[in-house]
Amino acid sequence: MTVFDVPLSQLRQRQSMKWTRYPPDVLPLWVAELDAYLSPGVKAALTRAVEIGDFGYHGAPILEAAWRRYAADTWGLSLAPEQVTGCGDVMSGMAAIVQHLTPAGSAIATTTPIYRPFRPAGRVGGRRLVTCAMTPAGRLDLPGLAALFERERPAAFLLCNPYNPYGSIASPAELAELAALAAAFDVTVVADEIHALVTDPAASFTPYLAVPGAETGFALASASKGFGLAGLKAGLIIAGSKRTGDLDLLPYESKTGATSHLGLIAQTAALDLDRDWLADLNTEITAHKRQLAKALAPFGLSYEPSPATYLAWVDCSPLGLTDPAGHFRLHGKVAFNPGTDYDEGAGQWIRINVATSSVILAEAVRRLGAALAAA
Question: What is the pTM of this model?
Answer without folding.
Answer: 0.97
